[in-house]
C-alpha cells in the first residue's frame, strides 16, 4: 500500500484539505471555506478525522460523527485521481474501527441518491439500505398562510407550553420509525435536550421548538425552527417535521412547517430550508405544495452497518 493513513493534524493539514475538498467537489474552496465546511458542532478535526497521505500529498480523508452513543455517522472521500485503488475502503474501515472502539453498535453512511457507484461501494463494504434524507428550499419571500388545524388539535412552542418534557415525548413518538434520528435507537430525555442546549448555544430555542397536540392532549407532531449561517449565507431552517405514524394520513406536516416558517419570518432572514431525515414521499409532496423545491444535491440514501 503506497499510502499511509493517520489522524488529521489541522494546524498543518488545512491547506491540503482545502485542495482535496476542491478536487472532490469540483469547485474551488479556500482554507476558510474548507474549515467552515468541516466545522460540525462537536466534531474535532484532530480526533474525528483521518487522512490518507501519499508522498506528502493528501489523497483522501474520512471522518466519524456520533449520532448517538450507539450509532456513529462515517464517510470517506478520495481525490478523483486516486480512486479505485482501495484508498476509500481503507479510510472507511479506519473510521469504522474507531467507531467500534468508541462503543458504537452501528455506523451509518449516506450517498447521493443518483450515485449508483457509491451505493454499490456501500453494499460491498457491508452496509445495508436504511432510509433517505432530503432538503427542500424556498425563497426568502415565501408567503405561507397560518396553520389550519383539524378540529381539536392545537400547536404551540415549548416557550408557550412551558414544558420541555412534552417536546421530548413528541420527538420519541414521531421520530421512532424515521431513520437518521437518535430516537429510533433510544428515547431522548429532557436532560439530553438541556445538555445539547448548553453544549451548542443558539440552537433549541424554546420559542422555535414546536409541538402539535391531538385532541386528547398527547403530542403527535414536532419540528424545530432555527437560523444557520450569517449575513448573506443565513438560512431559515425548519428542522425535521415529524408526525406520529397513526396521524400521518392527515398531512399535519403542513401545519408544522407553517408554524415554524411564521416564527422564522419574524426571527431570521434569508431563504428557507426544510431538512428531513427518514421522511416519506408523501411528506415530500406536502412540502412541494407549500412552495418548497427539492434540493437534488441533498437527496441521499442512508446505509447502516452493524458492528
Shape: globular
CATH architecture term of the largest domain: 3-Layer(aba) Sandwich
Radius of gyration: 20 Å
Mean pLDDT equals 92
Report the biggest beta sheet as strand number plus sense, adding barrel if it closes.
13 strands, mixed
In total, the number of domains comes to 2
Instruction: State the order of secondary-structure elements, H for helix, E for strand.
Output: EHHHEEEHEHEEHHHEEEHEHEE
Class from helix and strand fractions? alpha+beta
Assign a percent range to the helix content: 25-40%
What low-confidence regions span 5 or more consecutive residues with pLDDT below 50? none
Predict the CATH topology of the largest domain.
Aminopeptidase
User: Approximately what portion of the residues adopt beta-strand conformation?
Assistant: 25-35%
Q: Give the beta-strand count.
A: 13
The H-level CATH homologous superfamily of the largest domain, spelled out, is Gcn5-related N-acetyltransferase (GNAT)
Which class of the largest domain in CATH terms? Answer: Alpha Beta
